Amino acid sequence: MQVGNARYRTGEDIPAVVSVFPLRGALLLPGGQLPLNIFEPRYLEMVDDAMSGNRIIGMIQPQIRPDDEESDEFDEAAKPALSKVGCMGRITTFSETGDGRILITLDGICRFRMLEEIQCRRPYRQCRIAPFLADLEDARDGANIDREALLRTFREYLEAHNLEADWDSIARAGNETLVNALSMMSPFGPAEKQALLEAADLKTRAATLIAITEMMLAKVRDDYSSRLQ
């Protein structure tokens, strides 16, 4: 896996401990790019420390209870439990805004399983992890996904929400790029995003994406039918 100026080939290239950024609804996948607007002091410090080291940050979702408020903000003192699977990324762009914020882009390296959270004196959280080493392989087979069904469902979803897409770029995208890009940009909830992250392989992720999108379409159609009655 080539990410920026670094290459990650084996488990020896992956740190055993990563600093993690718990963010609900954020999805980073291997090979994907996630722009982030950093403004909280603890995460500004985390980015500074990452930039002076290996530039790696782990994106992970907090575990959400059904009665939690729909917000990306969490009481850090409460330290909400973390999901078991996240994805680490390398900072490939870094920009200071002049008003105290930092804009970065994370390029996905590989997913990881969170083994345990470790105690540290930093204001942010760190975890001992086990990487999904299969994600480091350069040649992942995307030939067996149902591209036609994926594009058809995606088109129907856009039409149902009066949205447009760059179909020329979509047509040129390879299957892996297409599946991961649609997964990351999909406006789905935390549970759906976690399911896409934890999919065993690209074929399973594509099938999961189609199933979730079809469920969302069915809900839109039901709501529309209800309004007509």
TrEMBL record:
<dbReference type="GO" id="GO:0008233">
    <property type="term" value="F:peptidase activity"/>
</dbReference>
<dbReference type="GO" id="GO:0006508">
    <property type="term" value="P:proteolysis"/>
</dbReference>
<dbReference type="Pfam" id="PF02190">
    <property type="entry name" value="LON_substr_bdg"/>
</dbReference>
<dbReference type="InterPro" id="IPR015947">
    <property type="entry name" value="PUA-like_sf"/>
</dbReference>
<feature type="domain" description="Lon N-terminal">
    <location>
        <begin position="18"/>
        <end position="217"/>
    </location>
</feature>
<protein>
    <submittedName>
        <fullName>ATP-dependent protease</fullName>
    </submittedName>
</protein>
<dbReference type="InterPro" id="IPR003111">
    <property type="entry name" value="Lon_prtase_N"/>
</dbReference>
<keyword id="KW-0645">Protease</keyword>
<dbReference type="InterPro" id="IPR046336">
    <property type="entry name" value="Lon_prtase_N_sf"/>
</dbReference>
<keyword id="KW-0378">Hydrolase</keyword>
